[in-house]
Amino acid sequence: MPDANFLAGVFSIVVIDLLLGGDNALVIAMAVRGLAPRERRIGTICGAALAVLLRIVLTTVAARLLDLPYLQAAGGLLVLWIAFKLLVDAGESPETAPSPNQLLKAIWVIVVADLTMSTDNILAIAGASHGHVGLIVFGLALSIPFVIFSSNLLAKLMDRYPILIYLGGAILVKVAGDMMLEDRFVQQSLNPSPVARYVADAGLIVALLLAGRYVGKRRRKRSAQK
Question: Which of 21, 40, 64, 141 could crosslink 32 through cysteines, CB 3.0-4.6 Å?
Fold first, then answer.
């Protein structure tokens, strides 16, 4: 029979997955929104499963990676670029027939963004498991059904309420800004105050939303003229 510490670890991991999986579900929902229903399911499942498998491998080194200067800043820039690309595609109709390249692109975006944004989830699960490999695998595997369910729900809501795409994009931009501002080098050299962080986040959100909308409109206008 499992002891109390093991059961407490299982409970902690379930709570961690529920609390920290939201941003990952959001990026999956935005990445697969432009796909047809069947491709959307394939992209969600494949992307989430591949990302979690890579998370299991990376869990043991995540704590050390956080101490490397520039790493979180680079990750933040990558998430910022992903958010921009998703915002550019925000105006595309989900009924448009997708090509195989779009499905592969969606899976690639899911895996890269999930790994970039999952440091908090990885470290929290590693801490709650106290080094128990079985609990680590359980926690990361458990995130698959949660993220799949959440992302499918979010994608459907975005189809119905397109304004949610821009809200989701704003959240991703904030995640990217926080990652860059929490980088070891940035903290040591700039040590930004809470006010400066709020201003930086707000500026990034406004700039990326406007840029994504502008570039997306221009691209769709060029496509319509062909």
Answer: 40
